[in-house]
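Hey, quick one: can you model this chain's 3D structure?
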Amino acid sequence: MARLHVNGRVLEHDAEPDTPLLWVLREQLGLTGTKYGCGVAQCGSCTVHVDGAPVRSCVLPVSAVQPGQQVLTIEGLAPRGDHPLQKAWVANDVPQCGYCQSGMLMAAAALLKAKPRPTDADIDAAMTNICRCGTYNRVRAAIKQASGQRVAGVDVIHVVRSTREA
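Sure thing. Here's the predicted structure for all 166 residues.
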């Protein structure tokens, strides 16, 4: 059995070496918070940290995680959901469908660790995850709030279609 250090625990798995880390986390270790989106490292739904760096786990072979390296998933970010980013996500109504959010949160957490008070340019450079619901303005506001920066109101445009005919 191979071992991985995940969320502060040593866990064993019996996956083939070329199995993507995502599938080991989800299928063998039962950590289903990390999502499968595209399978080609483009969307970011599968983002986890390896030794603090955000990685796309859908393309990272489990054998690339070296003994002693620490893997952090959304389940380990703050088990009680009280990480400043998680609180800011709720306060800013970031999620709509929610599918991409674990990857977004993990990317944002890595950004704040590297740059505790990120600029808009820093956020743009770090947040390459795709959100099909288009909540990017809310993501930016939540990151700024979690970093302690003042956040102006987030403009959200709601389109209402009339059922009356003109």
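One thing worth noting: The CA atoms of residues 156 and 162 lie 19 Å apart.
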